[in-house]
Design a protein that fits this description.
The protein is of the alpha+beta class. The N and C termini lie far apart (47 Å). A hairpin with a 2-residue loop joins strand 7 and strand 8. The N terminus is likely disordered. It is built from three helices and ten strands; from the N terminus they run H-E-H-E-E-E-E-E-H-E-E-E-E.
Length: 152
């Protein structure tokens, strides 16, 4: 009986390897269908740089750079100022297409107080524009728009 179970387990591993699923490491950040959507024409979504008395949190896209191969590591850095702290649950990631696509649920498991690191994010080839938002414990919000190109 043990040989039958081991044989079936070995067969499953072999079939999994043949299917190519093992070679496709990573998590889908943007699907092919979402990448094919038309670009957003809503120019009001692009935030205007403003000045304030107090500083908003920093929201920095560390990776990807301007041009990258997929899969890549998606990485943001968050930094609060003064006596405030980052509210990780406030992070939002929106794919600026028509209609917009909320990517927040896909990256939620990778969010920490100091940033986001999503290893091996899969994105189709093309130009992608995303909007990211983060707030601090004092209620100040930063909104930033990032663009990057994925080549295959």
């Amino acid at each position: 009986m043990r040989f039958v179970v081991l044989g079936l387990l070995g067969l499953c591993v072999f079939l999994f390897a043949l299917s190519g699923e093992g070679a496709r490491a990573g998590t889908v950040l943007i699907s092919t269908d979402e990448g094919a959507l038309p670009p957003s024409s809503d120019s009001t979504r692009i935030p205007v740089a403003t000045r304030a008395i107090t500083r908003r949190p920093d929201l920095i896209l560390v990776s990807p750079t301007k041009s990258v191969n997929s899969p890549f590591d998606l990485q943001f850095k968050f930094q609060a100022h003064g006596n405030s702290g980052i509210k990780p649950e406030s992070f939002r990631l929106i794919y600026l297409k028509s209609p917009t696509v909320d990517l927040t649920a896909r990256v939620r498991p990778y969010i920490q107080a100091n940033g986001l690191v999503m290893p091996q994010a899969q994105v189709p080839a093309g130009r992608h524009v995303i909007e990211a938002r983060i707030s601090d414990s004092d209620g100040r919000e930063t909104v930033a728009v990032f663009a990057f190109d994925v080549v295959k």
